[in-house]
Amino acid sequence: MKIVIDSNIVFSAILNSQGKIAQLIINGSNYFSFFSINLLKKEILNHKHKLLSISGLTETQFESSFSHITSRIKFVDEILISDQDLERATKLTRDIDENDILFVALTNHLSSKLWTGDKKESMGLKKKKYFRIISTNELYDLFIEKELQKRKP
């Protein structure tokens, strides 16, 4: 299953590398293909000092967490996303959060699911009959199901 990961999920994973979200990215990469936009890496590094301040991580811990999490994600150059997918995403996100256009466009482009922790975004997109969203709990349930299947004799 292809999963597009948005900013808030990656920020959460980097800030708490032992948490549920980070562990889903790290261990879930055995079952799911995680994708995001190239600009996400730049966004994270632009907010690095704020993230260091919030988390209490040292620079070395941050770099290690950043590297560990991003190594499990395939980053797609935004230029590869079709104009049609961008237009559709723009219409969908216009009155929700325009910062999410590229994530929704990539989700459409890959015919995948969008993993977001942004409840406003999730609810807004679902109201527009856009159901390519997966929550952390839904993804966790799928992960556990796959782990249990793997352990069956």
Automatic annotation (TrEMBL):
Family annotation (SUPFAM superfamilies): PIN domain-like
Gene3D superfamilies, per the entry: 5'-nuclease (3.40.50.1010)
Residues annotated as transmembrane: none
Domain PIN: 4-129
Record's protein name: Putative nucleic acid-binding protein
Lineage of the organism: Bacteria, Pseudomonadati, Bacteroidota, Bacteroidia, Marinilabiliales
